Amino acid sequence: MKTRTRKSKYPHARARILSWIGNTTAMLCLMVVLGCKKSDQPSATQNKIPIIIGHQADLSGGISSWGYWLDKAAKAAVDEVNAAGGIDGRPVKLVVEDTETKPETGTRKLRKLIQEHRADFVLGSVHSGVMMASLPIAEESQTLYFPVAMAAEATAEKGNRFVFRINSHVREQVQASADWVVNDPAGPKAKKWSIFVSDYAWGWSHEEWFTKGVSQAGGQVLASVRIPQNTKDFVPYLAKVPKETEAVYFIFFGADSLGFIQQLHESGYKGNKFTAVCTLEAIDIAKLGAAAEGAWVLEYLPRQVDQKNLPAQLAQTFEHQYHRDFRKAIRADESGHEIGSPDRVIACSHCWATYELVHLIKEAVEKSGWKTKADNAKLIKQLEGMTMKLSSTYPQGDKFIRPEDHQGFHQHWMSRVENGILSVKFHIPTEGVTYPAPVDFRKN
Fold first, then answer.
1. How many angstroms separate the CA atoms of 213 and 225, rounded?
2. What tens digit of pLDDT does each residue of 278-319 get?
3. Which of 55, 138, 309, 317 is the most buried (most CB within 10 A)?
4. Which stretch of 22-36, 249-263, 368-382 has the lowest confidence by average pLDDT?
5. How many other C-beta atoms can be found within 10 angstroms of the C-beta atom of residue 305?
6. What's the CATH code, domain 171-345+412-432?
7. Are 72 and 351 in contact (CB under 8 A)?
8. What is the pLDDT of residue 444?
9. What is the pLDDT of residue 30?
10. CATH class given for the domain over 51-167+350-410
């Protein structure tokens, strides 16, 4: 028996219905797709070519406690810049390479940042050995290099027109302190000094400039001793302290700082002690106890915000809201410890530099009209002589870049270790740290 197929009385209506269902389904699918795409719409900067900032960071090795904070501050600044629309409408990409606190590794990583990562600009090392070895590479590659290390020669006879430094360095630090520690009754007022420094570029620079500073102030350096990095036994070197010594000037970092300070105390030395904050940077001073107590320390941004009994005018020089907001951005509390990791101490006198440098690059690029490295010449001219005012982007305070040598100048503070904390004693204005320009890179 044959099965008979029943024909529809309305074949055309059936076709129209099926067509309508198909079209509706397609439309719904398209709406879903479009809806998804709409929610994933790129930001105004997302499809633009990024500006690449390299960071030659010291994330491992002897100075890693500093590198950690400089890297953290740079990342915080890049996040802020991108959240505000980037640089000239372009996103910023931060690329980080670890120097391992070694000059040979640091220079190799700088070339990698420039050649492989195509960095437009590089934030440089805080280690002077790495910095000094990197200066010729910046010139050779015509890449603007912004180091944080402090050997004076980087913005003098060893520098070049592609190098800019906004933070304090050795010669500024001596300019700020030498006459005071030799002659002022409120300080050590010591005429006879012994100097102990770490045996590499940074220590040599301190040795040279502090010796000059003491001599010009009417004092005398009785002994000057270079000590190899990673020394464990400082006793043979401490034996070289002449009995007539009235004060000791010492410059180290990391484990070397701890070893020297402790063994100096154990040797029975009772005289005055003075150092730049670098020696105590990222170190919990309270744990040093009597070994550090009474030492005078030159700071570039006070570690301790929650200080007691400060005159109002002095307190206002660093307790401003911009400074507090900067600490929030890098997650550090008012006593100088990391929020969430209280055993980690901030590198407060240094890490502001990478934070401000990111914002400085943004400001200079946008003012100069820089688009690519082909525009470096006009960007350099823009940076030469730039001034920065205390603000959310420059929380350390007012400063300027001298056009001749590309060195930045800013305020400092003199502090003393009292009851295990760095107590600020007075403020040193910018004019108190300046000196005649030793070179003029504009002639290059």
1. 17
2. 999 999 999 999 999 999 999 999 998 877 767 676 666 667
3. 55
4. 22-36
5. 19
6. 3.40.50.2300
7. yes
8. 82
9. 41
10. alpha beta
In angstroms, what CA-CA distances link 438 with 144, 174, 194, 376, 388?
A: 21, 16, 27, 24, 22
pLDDT (average), residues 4-9: 43
State the pairing for strand pair 399-401/408-410.
Answer: antiparallel
SS3 content of the chain, % helix, strand, coil (to 5): 45, 20, 40
- Sequence-separated contacts (24+) of 79-87 with Cβ below 8 Å: 80/329, 80/359, 81/358, 81/359, 81/362, 82/45, 85/44, 85/45, 86/45, 86/48, 86/51, 87/51, 87/361, 87/362, 87/365, 87/366
* Residue 124 · residue 55 · CB < 8 Å: no
Gyration radius of the chain's alpha carbons: 29
Is the fold of 51-167+350-410 the same as that of 171-345+412-432?
yes
What mean pLDDT is predicted for residues 157-186?
97
Mean pLDDT over residues 71-79, rounded? 98
Q: Is 378 exposed, middle or buried (0-12, 13-18, 19+ CB in 10 A)?
A: middle
Per-domain residue ranges for the chain?
51-167+350-410, 171-345+412-432
pTM: 0.89
Contact 414, 180 (CB under 8 A): yes
Task: Determine the pLDDT at residue 313.
Answer: 65
Mutual orientation of helices 64-83 and 348-368 as an angle, nearest 10°? 40
Place of tokens 């044959």: 2
Q: How far apart are CA 45 and CA 101, in angstroms?
A: 35
